[in-house]
């Protein structure tokens, strides 16, 4: 059973639109949820992260909305730019191990 | 920007050969993780260390894979007898602790022919 699921697999938006990437998880002991983005031929880089004490985390154009009861979170990218085109991974971990469990990623394409 | 260093960036081995890759964690980060990312972008946790001690590892790691993080030397991940299915991007990440952000190195891309 996959512990972290992402949808959609791929998403195309026009420049200036808001992209919404979804993530859900199974393990209620997860207490840290980072989002990483990965560009072709590069390694993942941290974009933004949230802990369950909050239901929202904002950093510029990037916002995480978190629903602990439903075990769901989403990443909203407002005013999308072509440079935002990348694969986005939702991950989750438990503090005492730190081991990250990743979703399968959403490939975002922003068309100019 | 991550300051985790991984070498080599690319590694080509024949089946049955040993493959060894190294990682220097970000300065001051005592926790090191190794992940495997396959061609389908799926991540698999392999092993993690706090200083020189293994915290957690998966069964696959215990059989053909070995890893260590000696003091004052780079961490390393070695595959004793490479198989075609081991072809992947091997990512090293470091952090201050279990609850802290993991920063990834550039990865070692292994191709097993």
The major β-sheet of chain B equals:
7 strands, mixed
Distance between the termini of chain B: 33 Å
CATH superfamily of chain A: Immunoglobulins
In angstroms, what is the radius of gyration of chain A?
Answer: 13 Å
Element-level helix/strand string of chain B: EEEEEEHEEEEE
Under CATH, the topology of chain A can be stated as: Immunoglobulin-like
What's the total number of strands of chain B? 11
End-to-end separation of chain A in angstroms reads 38 Å
Helix content of chain A: under 10%
Stretches of chain A where pLDDT is under 50 for at least 5 consecutive residues are none
Give the oligomeric state of the chains in this entry, treating copies of one chain as homo and distinct chains as hetero: heterodimer
Number of helices of chain B: 1
> What would CATH call the class of chain B?
Mainly Beta
Overall, the morphology of chain B is globular
H-E string of chain A: EEEEEEEEEEE
- DSSP E strands of chain A, number: 11
Describe the global form of chain A. globular
User: What would you report as the Rg of chain B, rounded to the nearest angstrom?
Assistant: 13 Å
Largest interface: A-B, 25 and 27 residues
Give structural notes.
The complex is a heterodimer of chains A (112) and B (113). With 112 residues, chain A is mostly beta strands. Chain A has one domain: Immunoglobulin-like (Sandwich), CATH 2.60.40. Helices cover 0% and strands 53% of the residues of chain A. Chain A is globular. With 113 residues, chain B is mainly beta. The longest helix of chain B has 5 residues. Chain B starts with a strand and ends with a strand. In chain B, 38% of the residues are buried. The chains are: A mainly beta (112), B mainly beta (113). The interface between A and B is medium-sized, with 25 and 27 residues.
